TrEMBL record, chains A, B:
GO terms for biological process: purine nucleoside catabolic process. It comes from the Eukaryota. The keyword tRNA processing does not apply. InterPro entries: APOBEC/CMP_deaminase_Zn-bd (IPR016192), CMP_dCMP_dom (IPR002125), Cytidine_deaminase-like (IPR016193). This is CMP/dCMP-type deaminase domain-containing protein. The lineage of its organism: Eukaryota, Viridiplantae, Streptophyta, Embryophyta, Tracheophyta. Keywords: Hydrolase, Metal-binding, Zinc. Belongs to the cytidine and deoxycytidylate deaminase family. It comes from Stephania yunnanensis. Residues 55-169 form the CMP/dCMP-type deaminase domain. The keyword Electron transport does not apply.
Length: 212, 212
């Protein structure tokens, strides 16, 4: 961050010094110097912005990783952590609670989304980001999508979790490798009258509930 | 069901009567009559089995559809219901609770899985089936997969829900149409040192927690 600040400082200093020495030049040259320095300044600002983003991403991702360790130490579940952030502040910091809550859906990301929504009293997190210690599984990615979170930053690739024995379907959300095709359960879709009855639910109720 | 029972009755009666009339025939003919009738009996049994399966599927799917209506009537959430069944008995019957619980993950299927696991005090539902009033979205399908449920029966196609305004990502789980590609959020994977730190979590903790 100091490095990027320094770059901006030098870009501004060069800008001022060049402007001082072009007082006797024509307007085209002044314009050229101006554009040239504006580009330099912009580049330095982008550098600063990237450094700031990297610094905050590092901070929150580290927190998610710490949560992953904490979850295992507490015996709450697997080594996964997730942090929901809004306006650079942590809303919730959670870890996997599958064992603690006897709930196979209590992955770190799902838990963090639930807790954040409860805390903020809203069903959408459109102004939030989520930091996950590991690539989210399809269930978690679905939950992230449904909560309208605007940004996901994750640490470990799914392979790191699969390598120690976790279900390889973790990798399927972000790669689109169709985990449903690997499912061993039998899937049956109703047909005929039953399908019609089930589909009528939507038409019959659409005026009665609030869309979300 | 009565019709299939009747078929078995007649198949058995014909079997007995044919056996009575072949007392003076050779062993090849006896064998032929036996095999022929065994096939008939088997066919009738399959018919009975299919009818029984259809009857129970109809019963539980109807219950899931009723839950969908109930959820809207209560104002708890969208028109979706799900029922978890074990040994022909309903373990839990739930509906969408997104609005009631201010929780975007509280879809009917996820809610039913959570409640069933809590009730049975186990994190796997390998001996259970789930009946959903509508095709499960990727999050719910992920949850069903994670809970190891052995059979999924669903009513409405995703299109019926999409037609009244629900997110078209519902259709992506069972068709593998890559909902992640439609996501508008920014996704960033950590690299370098951060990725290593995050991936080390698994190696460093694998001996400390119970795999599930």
């Amino acid at each position: 961050m100091d490095e990027a600040n320094g770059e901006i400082y030098f870009a501004l200093r060069d800008f001022r010094s060049d402007f001082a020495s072009i007082s006797c030049s024509g307007p085209d040259f002044v314009q050229w110097v101006f554009v040239n320095h504006a580009i330099k300044l912009l580049k330095s600002s982008i550098g600063l912005f990237q450094t700031v983003v990297q610094d905050r991403d590092h901070k929150f991702l580290t927190r998610a990783v710490e949560e992953a360790y904490k979850g295992v130490d507490c015996g709450d579940g697997g080594p996964f952590g997730a942090v929901v952030v809004r306006n650079d502040e942590v809303v919730v910091s959670c870890h996997n609670m599958v064992l603690k809550h006897t709930d196979p859906t209590a992955h770190a990301e799902v838990t963090a989304i639930r807790e954040a929504c409860k805390k903020l009293n809203q069903i959408e997190l459109a102004d939030c980001e989520i930091y996950a210690s590991c690539e989210p599984c399809p269930m978690c990615f679905g939950a992230i999508h449904l909560s309208r979170i605007k940004r996901l930053v994750y640490g470990a690739k799914a392979e790191a979790a699969i390598a120690i024995g976790f279900d390889d379907f973790i990798a399927d959300a972000l790669r689109g490798t169709g985990f449903y095709q690997k499912a061993s359960m039998e899937i049956k879709r109703a047909d005929g009258k039953e399908a019609i009855i089930a589909e009528q639910v939507f038409e019959k109720t659409k005026a009665k509930f609030q869309m979300y």
